[in-house]
Amino acid sequence: MGLPHRFFVAALSLFAVLPVASWADDAGFVPIFNGRDLDGWEGKPEFWRVENGAIVGETTAEKPTKGNTFLIWRQGNVDDFELKLQYRLTGGNSGVQYRSREFADVGPFVVGGYQGDFEAGPKFSGILYEERGRGILTLRGERISIAADGKKTPGEPIGTAEDLQRIIKPGEWNELRIVARGSKLQHFINGQLMSETVDEQEGKRATEGILALQLHSGPPMKAEFKEIGLKRLKLADGRKKLVLVAGTPSHAPGEHEFRAGVKLLEKSLDAGNPKIVTAVYTGGWPADPTAFDNADAVFFFADGGGGHPVLQRNRLAEIDALAKRGVGIACLHYAVEVPKEKGGPEFLGWLGGYFEPNWSVNPHWMLAKPELAQGHPITRGVKPFQTQDEWYYHMRFREPMTGVTAILSAVPPDATREKPDGPHSNNPTVRAGKGSREVLAWAYERPDGGRGFGCTGAHFHKNWGNDDFRKLMLNALVWTSGLDVPADGVSSAVSADDLAANLDDKPPKKK
After folding, report:
1. Which of 2, 60, 281, 428 has the most crowded CB, counting CB atoms within 10 A?
2. CA separation for the pair 217, 510 (Å, rounded)
3. In the chain, what percentage of residues exceed pLDDT 70?
4. Which candidate, 279, 341, 336, places its Cα nearest to that of 308?
């Protein structure tokens, strides 16, 4: 049973005089607006600016917007999260879009999806509205469950819209908090829950997407936002979060196509794996300061050696902290290499092995008659395959190799051991091992329960067209994330158009 009306009003009145807390008062919130400029945000410059530490969106009679326009946070997407910000509205209607998407075919900076609505008037603040979708989903004061078929069922009311409106301070600064965890969406203003929605509608609900601020069409208005903080939450409903990091362009066209490779893996995983949520960051280390905060696994496909993304600044310590809390770490091709003195010990702890200069080698050769680990989840549904690639071998592994499983191995041609000595090309130990079977991909079950994976292939982008190599990698990413691999492995299909998508713009290879 709800509270008596007079008690509810008194409680709201008491709460309304309490000071509004800043997002910085709570642990876990990370600022995503620097208070100085629009770095990391993008919108139509004629409508958006920074003034007195706040983002300002403004239309005038002389400069109206013909349709709703948005300022989009470009540093990442949101999935399960908590957002806090201060807003002040002078006239009109505004809101915060989340788990949304762009409608580029309609025009630039047009966004649709969930919106935490607020306005200068008395009706819409605190509601859940779906821009360019189902319209109003939940009014202020309501708890609504939306079933898979779209049927709405009301729950215990939060309070009356009129009583809740008294908490909102028109024309002054207010605190908006949005909590999205799985299908449950909650909107708070000045600490008071305003609406709550559980959205299970098939084909309509959203579990991830972009974050944006709205400037509404219509009469002149001014919307101000400051102290914007984001806290990522552990994914609900048994889902796992995989963060894929693609390095900056390197090598010739068709080689080290990190962005295209990561995008292809993302598309393949998203096609039929509802339990895995992917987040892709291209161009090197993520600009998003929250990128890894709710990750279950992190995958690096990038240049390695001294230029490895984790070796810049204090990132070794950052990834080490993730590994120590059980986050899986996977690296592919050049990303398995780090210097022995800086990164080597950490990679042994995260992956169980790595490419050590002056010990490991990187020849190009045709993989033939490989062996796959029998009974390991990563090899489910994978058949032996052949690819011409830069298959590194003679990795440095933990001693003893407790917890390390050789997933893919083969005997390299003797010719690959006959090159002159060098930090990558050859050494006496490699030369003495002619005819030996070498590990090319491996899995590591860490004592802390986390998982690691390394694979040395994928120099050539065309090899993603090999169904078995691709399945091996998809299985490995699912496994590293802590999920069970399907009995027949992760199914996917790749077309010529898929292989041609997202390639880097590189100069032709020199002859």
Report:
1. 281
2. 53
3. 95
4. 336
H-helix or E-strand containing 163?
helix 161-165
Q: Which residues of 189-213 are buried (b: 16+ CB within 10 A; e: fewer)?
A: bbebbbbbbbbbbeeebbbbbbbbb
Q: b or e along 428-461 (b: 16 or more beta carbons within 10 Å of the residue's beta carbon)?
A: eebeebeeeebbbbbbbebeeebbbbbbbbbbbb
Residue 510 identity: K
Predicted confidence (pLDDT) per residue in 269-299, tens digit: 999 788 999 999 999 999 999 999 999 999 9
b/e burial code for range 104-128 (CB count within 10 A of at least 16 → b): eeeeebbbbbbbbbbbbeeebbbbb
Q: Enter the pTM of the model.
A: 0.92
Q: In 3-state terms, the chain is what percent helix, strand and coil (to 5)?
A: 20, 30, 50
Which burial class, exposed, middle or buried, applies to 236 when counting CB atoms under 10 A from its CB (0-12, 13-18, 19+)?
middle
Burial classification of residue 250, based on how many CB atoms lie within 10 Å of its CB (0-12 exposed, 13-18 middle, 19 or more buried): middle
The one-letter amino acid code at 333 reads H
Rg (CA), the chain: 26
List, in order, residues 6 or more apart from 315 with CB less than 8 Å away.
Answer: 285, 309
Looking up tokens 């069970």 gives 484
